Amino acid sequence: MKEKQNIHIIGIGGIGTSALARWFLANNYKVSGSDICESEITEDLKKIGVSIYVGHKTSNLNRKTILVIHSAAISGENPEIKIAKKLKIDIKSYSQTIGRIIKKYPKIFKKNKPAQEPFDLWGFESLDGWHDLIDITAAKIQQVLDKNNNKDCYFYTVQNKQKLSTMRWYFESDDINRKTFEEIINKAEKESGSICENCGTKENVSQNKRGYILTLCNACRKIT
Ligand SMILES: [Zn+2]
Predict the structure, then answer these.
(1) Taking a C-beta distance cutoff of 8 angstroms, is the pair 86, 61 a contact?
(2) Which of 103, 105, 111, 154 is deepest in the core (most CB within 10 A)?
(3) pLDDT digits (tens, 9 = 90+) for 157-202
(4) 9 vs 42, 87, 141, 194, CA distance in Å?
């Protein structure tokens, strides 16, 4: 029998990250994770078969790991992130603040259960620095939806992620308003290239060409 692939979650004791752990477990993956301390959440995860490690160590990473997910609070100096990079394992960040924006614009960020789109599973696949930009852009989209308040007008997010240093926002919409939505989205995607993905500042922001290409300010580049 084929051995199950492993998903490793750094900062697994969070509300969002632990929910993600349960989802992977239900979808036939093995799940491991680490956090700085034990909690009721990590105890519950242990009971359903998740391997929990207290503290962040290189040895926490199982050889069958195909994906490492970390909460936004974790920096690139984390030993588990470092070893994952070295082993060329896919790394994704999971944001803690997505719930706030999703609640504010339920039509734009509707979540399907079971997951049908990447957004259902990952939420915003970028660091927290772009959340204001996402919020402002969603407000503009909402205005269009409000103005055309009928069932034929719709917009929902398929995926929202960072790719090659800027934001990419994939969506489905009605045909009549598609051009308007595209203009709003294109503007936001362009603007993301001048906003630090980590802290949201527009000062001293650049794109690094070495290794991972990210839009970051000088201060954040030192710590991420
Ligand atoms: Zn920054």
Answers:
(1) no
(2) 105
(3) 999 999 989 999 999 999 999 999 999 999 999 999 999 998 889 9
(4) 12, 16, 33, 30
Residue 127, judged by CB atoms within 10 A of its CB (0-12, 13-18, 19+), counts as: buried
User: In the numeric block, which tokens belong to residue 39?
Assistant: 């909690």
CA of 180 to the centre of ligand 1 (A): 31
Rounded distance from Cα 86 to ligand 1 centre (Å):
25
What residue type is assigned to position 87 of the chain? L
By three-state DSSP, how is residue 178 classified?
Answer: helix
- The alpha carbon of 220 and the centre of ligand 1 are apart by a number of angstroms equal to 4
188 CA distance to ligand 1 middle (Å): 18
User: How many other C-beta atoms lie within 10 A of the C-beta of residue 175?
Assistant: 7
DSSP class of 165: T
The domain ranges of the chain are 6-94, 98-215
Q: Which amino acid is at 93?
A: S
Which amino acid makes up residue 166? T
Only one residue has tokens 């290794």, namely: 211
Of residues 125 and 56, more confidence is placed in 56
Instruction: Please indicate, yes or no, whether the overall pTM of this predicted structure exceeds 0.90.
Output: no
Q: State the CATH class of domain 6-94.
A: alpha beta
Model pLDDT, residue 99: 65
Identity of residue 200: G
